[in-house]
Each structure stands twice: as C-alpha cells, then as structure tokens.
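Notes taken during the Thursday session

The instructor put the following on the board and asked us to keep it in front of us for the whole hour. The protein is UDP-3-O-acylglucosamine N-acyltransferase. We were told not to look anything up and to reason only from what is written here. First, the residues (319 in total):
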Amino acid sequence: MIRSVAPVSRGRDGDLCYLLSRRHKDELETCQASAILCDKALQSLVPPHIPVLLAPKPQTAFAVAGALLHPNAMRPDPVLCESGISERAVVDPSARLEDNVHVEALAVIGANAEIGSGTRIGAGAVIGAGVKIGRDCTIAAGASVLCAYIGNHVIIHNGARIGQDGFGYAPGPRGMIKIVQIGRVIIQDHVEIGANTTVDRGTMDDTVIGEGTKIDNQVQIGHNVRIGRHCGIVSKVGIAGSTKIGDGVMIGGAVGINGHITIGDGAQIAAMSGVVADVPPGERYGGVPARPMKDFLRDVAEMTARSASRNKKTGEKND
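Then, after some discussion, the predicted structure tokens were revealed:
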C-alpha cells in the first residue's frame, strides 16, 4: 500500500520514492520505502528488500503519482476554510461570478470582473475592474490581477503581481516623462506563476504567456513580452520588454534577457547567463554574454587553465 511520497534518504513503509542518478546511491542505505521508481539502468542499485517500479521517465511518473496521492497539494490551500463568498470580501455589484466560486475574506473584486466556476480567490487578493478569469483557477492570498484575461486551470501564487504598469519613460527637458501603459496581460490555460513574480501589462500591445508555461517565484516579465507554450522559467529571471520567447524554452535561474530579442523554440539558457542577442531555435546557450554552450565551456576551460598557470608561477616565486 502506497500512501505518500518521500525522498530516498528517508523513505519509510507506505512511501514511494524515485531514483534519478547513481550519485544518490548512498541514500539507499537508509531507505525503507515501499517502492522506488527508476529506469532499468539503475535497478541493480536498489536493495533487494525494496520493490522496483521501472519507468523510462521516473521523475514524470513520480509527479503523476504525487498528484494522485496528494490532490489538495496541486494548488495553494485556502487560508480560511470558507466556501462561497466571504461576508468580509468586497465584490462590486457589477462583477459576474459563476456558481462555485470561492472568495476569501478581505479579497476585493472590481467592477465588471468575470470569474469562472471552481475558481478560488485567496484572502486579501485584488481582482481589478474588467478582469476575466476562467474556470478552476487559484489566485492565492495577497496576489493582485489587473488589466488581464486569464484562461482555465491557472495558478497564481501568493503575492504575485499581474497587470501593473511596465517601466516606460521618455527623456524630457526636466527629466523622465512617463509613457502610458494601456495594454493587457493574456495568460493562457494551465499556466502557473510563482510567488512574488511580476508580469507587466503591455504598453499598447499585450503581454502574453502561453499555454502550460510554468514560471517560478520572483521572476520579472516586462511589458509586451510574449512567451510561448510549455516553457519553464526559473527564479530570479528578468525578461526585458518586447522580448519574444518561443515554445518549449527552458531558462535557468537568475538569467537576464535583453529587450526586443527573440529566443527560438526549444532553446535552453543556462543559469546566471546574460542574453543580449537572438538565440536560434533548439540551441543551448550560457555565459555572459550568452553564447553557444560549447563555446562557453571552452572559454571557461581556457580561463581555468590560465588561472592555474598564474597560480603555479606565483607559488614558484613565493618559494
């Protein structure tokens, strides 16, 4: 009987674990799980007392199992166990809410907003005037959604800011003059946006996030950015305005991306990179400035070798 999931090092009776690499084989010494997911190449590492479930993609299988075992953990829990519309929420009379919408205390829903069935608006969240939110979405506590159209099955985590003004100014005789921001944010189905992430509204066009894209905590997405379907964007990424990102793009943590450039479908950007120019489809880039990964790794190897050589000469002089 499988009741929960756990890391290999502390798996116990009733737990399901997964093994991705030989680097974690030492953790098996303390594992007492009821089963381990792995591929055939790692099967021999698993102690004989633990049943093995073979899967070509064990991490994917583990994710599916986790969703089945812990369905309530698939989206943020409500702060209060209230159903329906809290008496302490503020909902404009012109807002249109379908049946089975839950609005927690201190949430505010503006004029002419529309919210679909099964959607939950968390405590203290703000839904601006004219915002449209689809069905089975979660807008977690403290988030704000303004000037936006949001599809179905979207999760927006605590403190995220969607649809505020972007950074747009023109130089004037007495300083910077604000450029009006009158576009929207369009978020398609099955998107997840992490805590304290910001997605700016478009200047005149729209900022768009494609279906199935997953965005981590503390990401900044500038105005008029267009992100394709099924992308993965890790924490601390900053994407400047009017950048176009294709489908299936993976961007590592703390990457900075210049504005008005294009990153092609299926590209991968290594963590801590600075992207200043277009990235072709399917390419792997890294470094500052970002360049093809083989070039980046060669440059790193050369710098490491030169540094080692200098250190050796310095050591000889000191001797």
